[in-house]
Structure to design on (554 residues):
């Protein structure tokens, strides 16, 4: 059980000056962030942790220090009150540690759990919100802890990959019986929205709820305030299209979408994507080989690759920079001046270029290693995973500029994403796969662009150079990405015993409560059956009596 942690009041106004009206599950009308309020929350959290020796997860603290929008969502659901917001965040951090959220990666779950297709995201509602489908008829009470973990697994992916954009939860209750009813799971679902994922619920739809569940809904309703309860909706096949269009509604729910969730393990996904990407490469190569004027590749905007920096690590690990060569642009993006003297090269060879591996691809200007695939070895899914791309200017007399783009800028940080490469120079580009995106990396690609810098172009900013460079002089090289999850060894530390005992105690308490609820429901069903039997007997009695009276009168 997570208890509220008291936080010492600080002097001054504890509520931000920007009013907002919202509920725990609601979406605020005003989405502009108040950075001063966010700063106050961070300061108060630091004061509290320093005073109480908090032991929250380091990854969660890093997210709070880097994601303004996460703190802002906590502020909005607490009406921008600093004290309430800090208490809510502390409770959320304590829950994340106790529930061991960071361990909930794809490899944590047995394959057959995904194959049951009980919980998965797919499609959008009429307002463009992503839908998380939950087929209640597949729910097995004996696996409730795994289902809770699977729910949080999908929450983490959807919440942090879309900056907390609200989702729709579709509870498909077709074919449900009393054996599928688990009030403790429903309460867990609601608490996640109320306490741990602020502003995440657009609304929850109970689809084709059996009438036997009416009593259970009254219990659930008692857990919510009036406005939060308004986000729980009910629908049937006749009116579900008010929320989801027929094209986005699954066929089994009366729609036209033939989609059926099918889980494919990571290794099989990678093999399938290899064949697909090879085909796409062939098509792209055919289109780009038609001539310089036809060289068009659709990739995400390079400005999305953040952070961009002009600092690189040298052989001895020190940072090599030159403040004179880096000029702050109007958008606060570092611009590296193109000049032979710019010391942004990791390895500068004096005589001839350093030999790379035989797999390196020789383009018009640079050699690239690895040649075809960037491999990310994921050891901790809550931390960034690094892969290194080495670029070698094989020319002995030409200054070359390079630029790297990706199809998934939200999944990677590229350092640096662009810059100059002097003759014979070698640079190591760090590509950092962000936490939570390792399952989707097999779909990602990178484009390495290079072009010679002419004498009249020297001194230009890197952005200005790429805007003015002739397309015919640009050489392109494509790589695909792939991640491999490294399984922890058997001798690694196991979950602490106290955590296991806490879970066992919670399971025992929940089972006891569930048994009591089942008993009450069985009593209700018995009473209903008796009343129906009495009513049926009463009707037969009156019908028989009427026939007897008619006979007597005749």
């Amino acid at each position: 059980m997570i208890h509220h942690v008291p936080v010492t009041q600080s002097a001054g106004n504890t509520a931000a000056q920007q009013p907002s009206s919202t509920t725990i599950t609601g979406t605020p009308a005003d989405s502009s962030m108040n950075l001063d309020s966010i700063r106050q929350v961070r300061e108060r959290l630091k004061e509290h942790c320093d005073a109480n020796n908090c032991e929250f997860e380091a990854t969660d603290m890093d997210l709070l220090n880097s994601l303004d929008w996460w703190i802002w969502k906590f502020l909005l659901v607490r009406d921008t009150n600093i004290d309430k917001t800090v208490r809510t965040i502390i409770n959320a951090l304590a829950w994340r540690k106790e529930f061991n959220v960071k361990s909930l990666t794809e490899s944590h779950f047995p394959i057959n759990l995904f194959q049951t297709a009980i919980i998965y995201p797919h499609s959008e509602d009429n307002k463009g919100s992503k839908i998380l489908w939950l087929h209640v008829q597949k729910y097995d009470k004996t696996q409730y802890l795994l289902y809770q973990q699977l729910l949080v697994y999908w929450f983490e992916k959807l919440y942090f990959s879309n900056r907390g954009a609200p989702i729709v939860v579709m509870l498909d209750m077709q074919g449900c019986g009393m054996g599928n009813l688990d009030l403790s799971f429903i309460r867990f679902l609601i608490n996640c929205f109320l306490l741990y994922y602020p502003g995440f619920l657009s609304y929850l739809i109970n689809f084709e709820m059996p009438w036997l569940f009416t009593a259970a809904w009254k219990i659930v309703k008692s857990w919510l305030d009036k406005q939060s309860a308004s986000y729980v909706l009910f629908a049937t096949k006749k009116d579900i299209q008010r929320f989801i269009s027929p094209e986005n509604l699954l066929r089994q729910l009366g729609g036209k979408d033939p989609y059926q969730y099918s889980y494919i393990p990571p290794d099989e996904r990678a093999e399938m994507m290899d064949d697909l990407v090879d085909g796409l490469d062939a098509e792209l190569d055919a289109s780009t080989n038609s001539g310089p004027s036809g060289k068009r590749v659709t990739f995400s905007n390079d400005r999305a690759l953040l952070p961009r920096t002009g600092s690189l690590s040298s052989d001895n690990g020190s940072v090599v920079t030159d403040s004179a060569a880096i000029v702050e642009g109007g958008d606060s993006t570092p611009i590296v001046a193109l000049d032979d003297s710019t010391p942004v090269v990791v390895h500068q060879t004096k005589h001839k270029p350093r030999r790379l591996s035989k797999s390196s691809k020789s383009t018009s200007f640079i050699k690239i290693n690895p040649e075809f695939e960037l491999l990310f070895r994921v050891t901790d899914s809550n931390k960034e995973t690094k892969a290194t791309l080495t670029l070698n200017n094989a020319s002995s007399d030409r200054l070359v500029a390079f630029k790297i783009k990706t199809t998934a800028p939200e999944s990677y940080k590229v350092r640096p994403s662009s810059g100059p490469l002097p003759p014979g120079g070698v640079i190591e580009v760090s590509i950092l796969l962000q936490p939570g995106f390792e399952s989707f990396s097999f779909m990602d690609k990178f484009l390495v662009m290079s072009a010679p810098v002419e004498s009249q172009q020297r001194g230009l900013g890197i952005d200005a150079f790429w805007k003015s460079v002739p397309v015919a002089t640009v050489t392109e090289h494509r790589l695909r990405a792939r991640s491999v999850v490294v399984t922890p060894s058997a001798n690694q530390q196991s979950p602490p015993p106290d955590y296991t005992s806490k879970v066992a105690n919670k399971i025992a308490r929940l089972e006891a409560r569930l048994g009591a609820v089942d008993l009450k429901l069985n009593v209700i069903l018995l009473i209903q059956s008796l009343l129906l039997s009495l009513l049926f007997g009463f009707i037969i009695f009156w019908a028989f009596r009427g026939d007897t009276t008619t006979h007597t009168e005749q």
Remarks:
- Residues 1-31, 290-363 have pLDDT under 50 and may be disordered.
- The longest strand covers residues 475-485.
- The two ends are 76 Å apart (CA to CA).
- The longest helix spans residues 497-553.
